[in-house]
Amino acid sequence: MSWGTELWDQYDNLSFHTQKGIDFLERYGHFIRDRCLIEMEYAGKLRRLVKNYQPKKKEEEEYQYSTCKAFKAMLCEVNDLAGQHEVIAENLQSDVIREINYLVKDIKEERKKLLQDSAKYVAMINNQVASLERSRKNYEKAFKEAERALDNFQRADADLNLSRAEVEKQRMNMAIKNQHCEESKNEYANQLQKTNELQSQHYKALMPEVFRQLQELDEKRIRNVRHFMAHSADVERNVFPIINKCLDGIINAANQVNEKQDTILVIERYKSGFEPPGDFPFDDLSRGGESTPLILPGSGNTYVSSGVGAHRSESMTVKGTMSAGKLKKRVGLFAIFSSNKLMDVCSSVKNNLSSSGDKDDYSELPPNQRRKKILQKLDEMQAKLHQEIAAKDGLMKMKGVYESNPALGDPMSTEGQLNECSQRIDKLNSDIAKYQGLLQEVECNVSPAGTRKHELTEHNGIGNGSTNNLSNHNNRINTSLTDGRAPLGEDESLSRSASDSSVSIPAVGLNNRYSGETVSLGASRNSLANDEDPPPYYDIHDLPPLGTCTALYAFEATSEGSIPMFDGEQLLIIEQDQGDGWTRVRRQPPNVEEGFVPTSYISIHSS
């Protein structure tokens, strides 16, 4: 069925219906737009929720428990869920809302054009009907005038009193009116024929075509609404697999919760290492003499017995870490405002604070916790030491390249960096020796050797794992002390001159981090400067390329020995990164230039 044949006389209703259809399409577009806003708002609130419940830095120790780790993993999955809601909003925005806007614009333009055509056709038929009506009225007027003229002639012809001239005048007037009436009749007949033809064309061809196109336009709108609804559901269905993975991740995180492990971690965290207290001795006052002080093992607090109760001794310690003398010095802090010599008092306070001992030795902690902190500190310093040694080795290699080919740079330009690096290594070595001594002190004072060995074998990777390596730390301590050497080459020195350079680099491995073994690199560096044929490792023209790389970012050379590069440039790798963050590369012919570039600025391809 067609609108052109069935609704030939419903032009106004069809115009109203098509406008309502466009309004509905725009309303649906507004619904999708508001839904996108809700999805984005929901995703933003989820991300804000995750951010608010992220562990703070001061809470990091609490997050070693499996429940806290599972909660942190759940936060990551919830953050990913928020990302999927953002994907839904973005896809609806790009695939649905944009298409709806384009469709609304096209339908409005086509409907406007069709309505303009129909208005033109209606105006044509209305004009033709108006012309027909005017011609009909003219014909009617002329016909009446002709009748009056005929009547006047007949009366004049019958009147004998009128002259022949008067009668002839009435006859001529009658003839003129009859002729005019005939012309009006013919004009009316022509207009009637034109009007009938135009009306037939209007209702059988012109307007049905307009209605047919309006029907197709409305069907197009309805068809696209169906497509948009289905596509909106598909957009949400497409993220369901990832949402399910996020939910599976939350379930997996929940399955990782281990109550036994958490309770053991509590032991590892809060175990003091003190032995349980023994029985209180009986204080027989009848024998006379001073009362026997009672010491609570593990607390370091001394109590003096009396007949009724007990009170603290003046020489007691707080948590077994601070003497009474130091407490007295701290009490002196409150007397500074009553002194007239403010500067002297401030100086005295400073000395008192420094004499109270720094907290880097963790002396305020119980023995077991102190041992764990010292082991963690040793591991941190060892990692820093490895970094410094790698950086120093890289500087030595760069200096060797400069010595073999002064065109690349001045060997003396690395002197300052080498000296600073050596100073940092010496500082780390002294700190490691200090903490080794503290560790040995803790091991000697806490408990017998058999008890300590049992405690070491009792923990199987629970907590931070530092207790598992305690025996290795002890072995390294004993090795360093019996050899009479400071750990990691404490005696090493760095001397530099224009023609001779010697550096003592510690040889650090995974199993001898504190062994104190050193390797001298001075001889190899001097040989580079004195030999006529240096090894191929430092040859600038004969080194074969190890592979290729692509520059990820542009780099401006700011130091000697480095070369600039632009984004996307292809380079040849001559020497891999040795841990110092620099890779030696060579430009491809014809511009053969060689030097160092940051490793993080390039993408290395396998050769």
Descriptive account of the structure:
The longest helix is centred in the N-terminal third of the chain and has 93 residues, at 66-158. The chain is elongated and about 185 Å long. The chain has helices spanning 3-6, 11-52, 66-158, 164-238, 240-255, 259-270, 324-331, 342-355, 367-404, 415-446, 449-458, 470-483, 522-530, and strands at 293-295, 302-305, 310-312, 494-496, 501-506, 518-520, 547-551, 570-575, 582-587, 594-598, 602-605. The strands form 3 sheets. Strands 10-9-8-7-11 form a 5-stranded antiparallel sheet, with no helix packed on it. The chain is built from 13 helices and 11 strands. It is α+β, with helices and mostly antiparallel strands and 607 residues long.
Summarize it.
The protein has about 600 residues and is of the alpha+beta class. Helices cover about 60% and strands about 10% of the residues. It has 13 helices and eleven strands.
Descriptors for this entry?
607 residues, alpha+beta, 5-stranded antiparallel beta sheet, 11 strands, elongated
